[in-house]
Each structure stands twice: as C-alpha cells, then as structure tokens.
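call fold target=Adenosylmethionine-8-amino-7-oxononanoate aminotransferase
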Amino acid sequence: MSIAFGDAFLPNAQAIDKEHLWHPYTSMIDPLPTYPVVAAAGVELTLADGRRLIDGMSSWWAAIHGYNHPQLNAAAHQQIDQMAHVMFGGITHPPAVALADRLVKITPAPLRRVFIADSGSISIEVAIKMAVQYWQARKETAKTELLTIRGGYHGDTFAAMSVCDPVNGMHHLFKNTLIPQRFVARPETTFEQPWDDTDIAELAQQLARHHQSIAAVVLEPIVQGAGGMRFYHSQYLREVRQLCDRYDVLLIADEIATGFGRSGKLFACEHAAISPDIMCVGKALTGGYMTLAATLTTDDVALTISRGEGGGALMHGPTFMGNPLACAVAVAAIDTLMGSDWQSRVAAIEQQLCTELLPLKQLQSVADVRVLGAIGVVEMRENIDVASAQQQFVEAGVWIRPFGRLLYIMPPYIINAEQLSRLTQAMADYANDVIE
C-alpha cells in the first residue's frame, strides 16, 4: 500500500508534532508516545510504516460504522460540493432539518425540540443552560444547583466539569474555580445484580431536603463512561425519574457515549423505559467523521424558556452551530445505523466479549471484568502504564487506549469475530503479563 504523505513527510512531521502539538491528557515535557496514522478503513488504522491495527476504541467511542464508510463518504462529498458551512442565525438548510427530523423520530417521544451543538461537552453546557433558564422563566430563581452521582464524566468545559466526579475525576486541579454542585454516592447495584432499594436513598434524601434549589439531576444513564466504566442497575434510573417528577426537578440524561446502540439499546434510557427532560447526544452521531452533538428537550422546557424574559431566547449560539457538512454526515450515519441489523451485531459482540473476557476475573492481576452491549472492561488492580501498554498493543496489531486501572474496548459494530478475538487476546495477554 502506497502512503505518499507518510513516506515523504513522516520524519519531519513527528518532530513538529513533539515540539508543537499538545495532545490530550499528556505533558509537553514528557509526553506519551504518539503513533502516526495515515489511513483508516473498516476497523483498521494504518500506520505510516504500513502496519495495520484493529481499532478497539472506535476513536473514543464514535466510529461505530468503522472508517471510510461509503455511505458516509458519499454524504460528505455531496454536501461539500453544495456548501460546507453557513451561519445558523436566521438561516436554515436541508441537512439540519433532516437531522432534527431523524433525532425526534428515534429518541423518546417527549423529546421534540433540538439544539444542534458543536461537541458533547457543549451539549452538556447547553443542557445546563436550558435547566437554569427554565426555572428562571418559571420565576423559581433559587433553582440553580445541579445534583449528580459520583463517578460521572460529562466533558471538559467548565460547567460540564462541575458535574464530573470531584475527587477521582480528571478535573481536580480546577476544584476551586468550578461552581459547587451537589453529589451523592454512585449506585453500587450493578446492571445484573438484584436491585437494592438502599442504593437510591441518598439521592432521595438530597432531593427531599434541597429540591427548592436544585434545577436538575444530571447523569449518564446505565453506563458511567470515562469516570470509571461502571454499569449500574436500570431500576436506579427509574427511581431517579420518579423522584424528579415528585420533587419537580428536571432530569438531564448524558447519552453522549451511550447513544446509538452502544449499550445494547438505541439509547441507554430505554433499559429503564424512561424519558429524560433533556438528553445530550454526540460521539457516534456522525459515525465519528466530525464533531457534532445535539441537546434535545421537551415542549414544556422549550416553550417555557421561550416565554421567559429577554425575548425567550436560549442563551447559546456557537459559530459552527448546525454546520451543514456535519449535519449531512450525521443524517447518513443515523440512516446507516437504522438500516442495519445493529441489534444483532451488538448482541454478538456482547456474547463474544463475555466468553473471552469474563474468564480473566480469575487472574490475580484483575479486580473485575464488566461487559454490556459493545463495551468490554477489564479493571486491573494496579494503575496501567499507558505508554508501555500501548506499545505492547501496537506490537500485537491492535489499538487499545487504557486509562487509570481500566483496560477497555468499545469496537465498531462492523467488527468481525476474528478481529474482536485479536482485541480480547491482547487484553488477556496484558493481564497475564502483569502477573509475571
């Protein structure tokens, strides 16, 4: 395979990268190594030296259809020939209209109003603004606080950081600059265990005592992602919905990582058969092609805000809101998903992950193994040396990016059984090597 860009430019590119590019969650003095990717197709990433890696991360959980997908490519090519971008203020366009139509049809029925955002973090910011403005419009101005569960992750912007785990999250450096929020213990009843009523007690107490000041409960439904890759019981989510209704508090569901089938349901809220007042989606929305997210809400929230002071405008309006190119690809990504047998694919991935990963629980080096939908997690007893682990995985021909004590994969849905076994075998090899 000819890789002209890599062959001609790679040595200088790597030097420029190390000197000037600041990669996520790494130092510029002693940065984690980077691996030069020059192409991607199907479930494989191609390095500049020609090696191909099976991608177990779906590019941070987004590329559910794999890479270089013909239907998504065609949508991007067609749209870019018409217009790549136009401001959304005072203008609408077919891709945005089509995307809103798709989202309203596939999300829970009460969610009928769509705000198209730039990224997952921004969709959380928008959701928080919606919640606060809603209560302002209802003249209940004391309701400005957010209640959430520990172990969560909602993004890297400031309002989103304020509801991430305050102790074990990635944002402890900013604790003195973030708006204080209310936190309760994370649910301990796992997805498959019998429900324990005591799990919801602290959240119920907080709402009973402080609902007059709480605007919304914010949580990741069923799957806590980057905060710990934990799967909790669906009854917890049902109880939260009931408590929010009882105490007149909004419920914000962060479906950025879980949306579009990752947990085995189209949206994780479906495990509990509930609908939030506000839902955030992102990541897989465009099949991983480009950044885009959306915040959906109910008629009640949208119309109440719209009757409020200041002309009823929701106070957010990013420059690239409703980007036509991203919207067109998102429509194609949704159509590709809904036109496929994604449920069977995710179920097959789940079954294979259970078969090949659950036996690792017996290893001394492993604290726990968890599987739900197309998510497989091996929690080690000790923190993982990311640089050395990643080198081992690349040498094994796979791309896995661990963090903390967590070794996990969230592969594209199009992965075949042999490719998935390559990923799980690499995880097993790593876990066994730690024992040695």
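return ok
The first helix runs from residue 4 to 20. The chain has 13 helices and 16 strands.
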